[in-house]
């Protein structure tokens, strides 16, 4: 894909100018919104590839914006916020945000997170065009049509729950999925009684696909929040 376009949603002039300067120096196209209402208008009319969103806007909470955008689009949303509590991160991620950066942040981290979102966009476009429905990530391969998983060229036998977990993570590669989101997707209405079970199944899944379950390369834990499947080439940038 061509260089992606971004929408900066930030009411703080200093932060807004830092982000804008960083994007300009790296040849990204971008628009700017200073309020929630303006952000929703720009998102709908400008149709950016990625949104960089502050949560503390003067007229609207950022979580509300995430929910409204998610009602019509799956475009990546990277939250950039001074709110550092786990609850704030979980609320934003549960609402549909793809990533969360805490202020103050480095421009190197911001650019790395944008590159992750770009690769996720590229992967989504590629998989939509594929007819064989095969997911590949490093030595890991999922054949969705056959319902088979291979790792390091050997077939891996997974339980139905392990397979559903792996597919859920793979279809959201690069995105942090909260415990609540995962358990609701896997167990439906009974999700509350299965939060503890999730950790058990995730541990057994890691033992089957990771070379070293104590130092996983595929499934990253976000303590107190959830899990993310990493693209192998992303590891150096995010860890």
TrEMBL record:
- DNA-binding region, residue range(s): 132-231
- Annotated coiled-coil positions are none
- What is the annotated signal peptide range for this record? none
Using the record's annotations, give every residue carrying the modification 4-aspartylphosphate.
54
Q: Which InterPro entries match?
A: CheY-like_superfamily (IPR011006), OmpR/PhoB-type_DNA-bd (IPR001867), Sig_transdc_resp-reg_receiver (IPR001789), WalR-like (IPR039420), WH-like_DNA-bd_sf (IPR036388)
Kindly state one GO CC term assigned in the UniProt record. Answer: protein-DNA complex
A Pfam family that this protein carries is Trans_reg_C
- Residues annotated as domain OmpR/PhoB-type: 132-231
User: Superkingdom of this entry's organism?
Assistant: Bacteria
Keyword Transcription regulation included in the entry's annotation: yes
> Which GO biological process entries does UniProt record here?
regulation of DNA-templated transcription
Domain Response regulatory stretches: 5-118
Query: Which keywords does UniProt give here?
Result: DNA-binding, Phosphoprotein, Transcription, Transcription regulation
List, in alphabetical order, the Gene Ontology terms for molecular function in this entry. phosphorelay response regulator activity; transcription cis-regulatory region binding
Q: Does the keyword Nucleus apply?
A: no
Q: How is this protein named in the record? A: XRE family transcriptional regulator
Species name for this entry? Megasphaera cerevisiae DSM 20462
């Amino acid at each position: 894909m061509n260089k992606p376009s971004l929408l900066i949603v930030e009411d703080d002039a200093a932060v807004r100018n830092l982000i804008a300067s960083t994007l300009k120096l790296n040849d990204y196209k971008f628009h700017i919104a200073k309020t929630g209402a303006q952000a929703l208008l720009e998102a709908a009319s400008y149709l950016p590839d990625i949104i960089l969103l502050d949560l503390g806007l003067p007229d609207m909470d950022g979580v509300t914006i995430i929910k409204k955008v998610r009602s019509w689009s799956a475009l990546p949303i990277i939250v950039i916020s001074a709110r550092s509590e786990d609850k704030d991160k979980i609320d934003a991620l549960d609402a549909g945000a793809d990533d969360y950066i805490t202020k103050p942040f480095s421009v190197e981290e911001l650019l790395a997170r944008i590159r992750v979102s770009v690769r996720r966009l590229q992967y989504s476009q590629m998989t939509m065009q594929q007819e064989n429905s095969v997911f590949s990530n490093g030595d890991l391969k999922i054949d969705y049509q056959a319902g088979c998983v291979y790792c390091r060229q050997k077939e891996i036998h997974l339980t139905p729950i392990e397979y559903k977990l792996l597919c859920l993570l793979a279809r959201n590669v690069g995105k942090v999925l909260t415990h609540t989101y995962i358990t609701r997707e896997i167990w439906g209405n009974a999700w509350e009684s299965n939060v503890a079970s999730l950790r058990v199944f995730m541990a057994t899944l890691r033992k089957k696909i990771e070379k070293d379950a104590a130092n996983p390369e595929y499934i990253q834990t976000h303590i107190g929040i959830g899990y993310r499947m990493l693209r192998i080439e992303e590891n150096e940038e995010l860890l």
